[in-house]
Amino acid sequence: MSVINITTNIIGSGLGGLAVAIRLARQGHKVRVFEKNPGPGGKLNSIDNGKYRFDTGPSLLTLPELVDELLSDAPENIKSLFKPLKLDKICKYYFPDDSVMDAPSDPDEFSKVFSGLTGEHKRNIDTYLKKVWELYELTAPVFIFGNFHRRKELFQLKNLKVLFNLYRLNPLATMHGYNRRRFSHPNIIQLFDRYATYNGSSPYEAPATLNVIAHLEHNKGAFFPENGMFSITLALYEYAQHLGVEFIFNTYVSKIMLNGKKVTGLIAGGKEYKSDIVVSDCDVFHLYEYLLPGIKAPSGSIKKNLSSSAVIYYWGMNIDHPDLDLHNIFFTADYREEFNCLFKKMTIHDDPTVYIFISSKAAKRDAPEGKSNWFVMVNAPYDNGQDWGELIAQTKKNIIKKLESRLGFSIQDKIEQEFVIAPPGLEKNTLSTSGALYGNSSNSATSAFYRHPNFSKKIRGLYFTGGSVHPGGGIPLCLASAAIVEREVIREYETVK
């Protein structure tokens, strides 16, 4: 490929923005990244007060090879920043019937352990994991790594098998409905239902196709970087700088400039920055509402059906409890009501599922010796005007009551430091509309088709990456969106010699 002299402006330095910056800089573009915050990362960030360090967003990594590919040509000192370690245990589960399970990452061991714990036939679990593997192999080339918004790409021969095998995707069944037919024990149904929360959806409404998410952890493997999740951000940021990418922090982008139906640059911090291309790594709803005045958003892909959000308590704990692991989940006794609260009642369930992530179990420097850093998260509705002060206080009481009942010691007495983030704070920090973590939810059979494409069909030179557009939220999908943007830019702007 030969590169036309191209300048690219990127809005946002989340994972998608960093990945696009690297990809286009490697193509020879002059790249600038604008970030309203003091540093890179977006949701994949860090809180560090010198005593306790917390990863603020994603807490587990799948498909680390997508990060490795981005860093493949990086200097060794930058590559060494990212050291993914495969976990022997995915998660420790605390079920409502008082049973506890350490879920091995090896699929065969997982099915043995769960079969022994529940009485569910091992063959049922093995068959399920095989089915979600086949589902991934069928769908990933189109729905994750492909761009089905281009008809020419969608109808390539390699993709036609998906169209001819749509029935295998179970699009008309819900995740819960499919899992309930596959298994008899409520604990394993609940375990696999939980993967709907990975893109802010409800297992009682999201299509069974999304059971493919379980494949990434249970078949491909769960990973954790040696130096914490924020090391992914640091490695990509350092490599982007090495490639000559310019980062402009503490600078809010207020407008994308157009000449007719062609991008000409953007306005950031009151100053104009000309460019041939603009790539948005900000929330797509925010972009159309504030950065493109007078431009009508695509009616289908911009319809709001927002995902869930979260309330997260970051606790510096004066204890390193030996029974807790890196990842821990304390399930609710009424999962259906929890999701009813999230999407219908727009509140947090009184008995919420509680997720505790303790990075200091793996990255010892994240907490002082004998202490630990608890990332305590519950699912929450997006911000719809709720009294968040009251919800945060009451939810904390409910969490502490639940944890003390299961763990057998006083929680409040062990909290040395506390930071809290809720949907309004998430919106302020990351511009996620109403604090929704993943843009739109996937609570319909057609939701994947209504995600915004990675390019504008109306405006030449405008592209989109990140969790609010195709293919969706989460580390692998954000990285996939960046790769799609690169292909689209090459298609439009670069010529074969």
Plain-language structure description:
The chain has 16 helices and 19 strands. The chain is of the alpha/beta class and 497 residues long. It folds into three domains: 7-48 and 59-83 and 227-303 and 439-493, 3-Layer(bba) Sandwich (FAD/NAD(P)-binding domain), CATH 3.50.50; 108-221, no CATH class; 308-381 and 384-421, no CATH class. It has a seven-stranded mixed β-sheet with strand order 7-6-15-16-17-14-18. Strands 9-2-1-13-19 form a five-stranded parallel β-sheet, with helices on one face. Strands 10-11-12 form a three-stranded antiparallel β-sheet, with no helix packed on it. The radius of gyration is 22 Å and the shape is globular.
For the structure shown, list the relevant keywords.
five-stranded parallel sheet, 19 strands, seven-stranded mixed sheet, globular, alpha/beta, FAD/NAD(P)-binding domain, 497 residues, 3 domains
Which CATH class of the largest domain?
Answer: Alpha Beta
**Uncertain parts:** none
Instruction: State the CATH superfamily name of the largest domain.
Output: FAD/NAD(P)-binding domain
Question: Helix share of residues?
Answer: 25-40%
**How many domain regions?**
3
Mean pLDDT over all positions:
93
Number of strands: 19
| Ends distance | 6 Å
CATH architecture of the largest domain: 3-Layer(bba) Sandwich
Shape: globular
User: In which order are the strands of the major sheet placed?
Assistant: 7-6-15-16-17-14-18
Backbone structural class: alpha/beta
**How large is the count of helical segments?**
16
**Rounded Rg:** 22 Å
Strand content: 15-25%
CATH topology descriptor of the largest domain: FAD/NAD(P)-binding domain
Biggest sheet, open or closed, and with what strands and sense? 7 strands, mixed
